[in-house]
Amino acid sequence: MDTFNWNSRTVRNCVYINIVLIFIVIAYIAVTSYLDIHELKTGKFEAISIVDGTSGYRYELSSEDKSMVREMLENNSYSRTIGIFPSGGWSYKLEGVVDDNERQMIVKYNSIEYRGRLYRLSEPLDFYDLFDNKAADDLAQVESTNVSENSTEAFLMKWDLKVDGSPIEFNATVPEDWTVELGQYPEGLYWGLANVFSKEAGLDLTRLKGKDVEVQVYALTDGLPGQGESSDYIYKSNLTLLVQEGITVGAWLNFNKSSIGPAVNSKYLEDITGFDFPGWIEQEDYFRMNEKNEDLKYMDPAEVLEVFFAAINTGDTERAISCIGPDRQRDALMMNKKDTELYNPGFGDMNSLVFGIEEAELLSYKYLDYETLEEIEGYEEVGDRKTVELAANVYIVFVFDAFNDPDYTTVRFVIFRKYGNGWKIEGFGTGP
Q1: Which residues of the chain have pLDDT under 70?
Q2: Is 109 in contact with 125 (CB distance < 8 Å)?
Q3: Which three-class secondary structure string do you get for the chain?
Q4: Cα(98)–Cα(339) distance, rounded to whole angstroms?
């Protein structure tokens, strides 16, 4: 049988060929990068398209339309990102900042994306230089970085996310199981909500189940506006990124630092899903009923409160938790958590009503309309209301003595909301 013998000359030739191929690849990358930069430096602006980052509307303009561009940009009194697409295939991302003194839009560009590469400028340049072809000299400072689309820096740039300083960094493990049954700690609820928001950025968190991630939490420079009656106020808020090997694999915002959401495009749960939080909970089948607590489904609010207190008194925390509503349990995930945690690892006396009460008893009560606070004559008159309030005279001993009345007797206003699995406690306060 014939055999093929590799002699030393053949081996040397193969090595030489591989080395030559490697040098050819390196040279090709260097030459194409140089040519790209050269083309960027010498390119002339003829017709361009401007895409409004807020409305998505595309403006077709020529190099003679400087006044129109200036008017379009400077008449807007809020920050925005604008995409610039000249006829030669360039792609500019611009950042607009309002000068409060001049009330003018000062527009700078700080990066150029061209043929799959991201070129960063060491210093932002004035937008109007583009029309006057003054960018050529400044582009000598361009660095070719080949930044991945979802690297942290590119992700922040892509979504126009302005952040302060360096992030808080820590590691976390995404749990395998996101289901939540009645009486359990709702860890899966956190990930379900986060995934709704992260998918708006094209990042599906279900792919991360069971995997370790690096967490980066940034402070948003401009915060986030409130909603509804609070829309005139700005609240300090955060950006949460999940990162693996330098690539962003999950992202969402934290309104007022303690909320899960909105998405990086500022959409809230109802904007994305069409459901408010209670509706989404039932749509996704969270807090599934179990046999032990199935009887809660058929109780009125006063009966649920009595069961809640009895469960605390006997140490049956699972049954007590089963009386607490999804909204209150969502708050428990984020309330008083550490900065180096995505959410609290479990219920405790700092984030849960169940663990904050030592013993309690319902002495008397009356039903109130949630909107008007007018008294309702008994549960039979509650009708089809989905939310009611109970003015409850209670004997209650809190874990923290500062919360206790001298004789441990007080009035608490307890808000109940009706879900598919019964009435649940969503508020427990000192006033209506």
Answers
A1: 1-150
A2: yes
A3: CCCCCCCHHHHHHHHHHHHHHHHHHHHHHHHHHHHHHHHHHHCCCCEEEEEECCCCCEEEEECCCHHHHHHHHHCCCCCCEEEEEECCCCEEEEEEEEECCCCEEEEEEEEEEECCEEEEEEEEEECCHHHHCCHHHHHHHCEECCCCCCEHHHHHHHCCCCEEEEEEEEEEECCCCCCCECCCCCHHHHHHHHHHHHHHHCCCHHHHCCCEEEEEEEEECCCEECCHHHCCCEECCEEEEEEECCEEEEEEEEHHHCCCECCCCCCCHHHHHCCCHHHHHHHCCCCECCHHHHHHHHCCHHHHHHHHHHHHHHCCHHHHHHCECHHHHHHHHHCCCCCCCCCCCCCCCCCCHHHHEEEEEEEEEEEEECCCCCEECCHHHCCCCCEEEEEEEEEEEECCHHHCCCCCEEEEEEEEEEECCEEEEEEEECCC
A4: 32
Q: Are 274 and 262 in contact (CB under 8 A)?
A: no
Contact between residue 368 and residue 375 where contact means Cβ atoms under 8 Å apart: yes
Residue type at position 4: F
Instruction: Look at the pTM and tell me if it is higher than 0.70.
Output: no
Other CB atoms within a 10 A radius of the CB of residue 82 amount to: 24
Report d(CA 381, CA 373) in Å as an integer: 14
Question: ∠ CA 64-142-251 to the nearest 5 degrees?
Answer: 95
Contact between 237 and 252 (Cβ < 8 Å): no
Specify the pLDDT at position 289: 81
Query: Residue 248 to residues 74, 162, 211, 245: CA-CA distances in angstroms?
Result: 33, 16, 14, 9
CA atoms within 13 A on the CB side of 91: 8
Radius of gyration of the CA atoms of the chain, in A: 30
Identify whether the C-beta of residue 45 lies closer than 8 Å to the C-beta of residue 188.
no
CA distance 407 to 395: 8
The pair of three-digit structure tokens given for residue 25, joined into one six-digit string: 């690849």
pLDDT, position 10? 63
Question: Beta strands 247-254 and 81-86: pairing type?
Answer: unpaired
d(CA 419, CA 94): 47
Encoded tokens for 408? 């441990």
pLDDT (tens digit per residue) in 151-198: 788 888 888 899 988 899 999 999 999 999 999 999 999 999 999 999
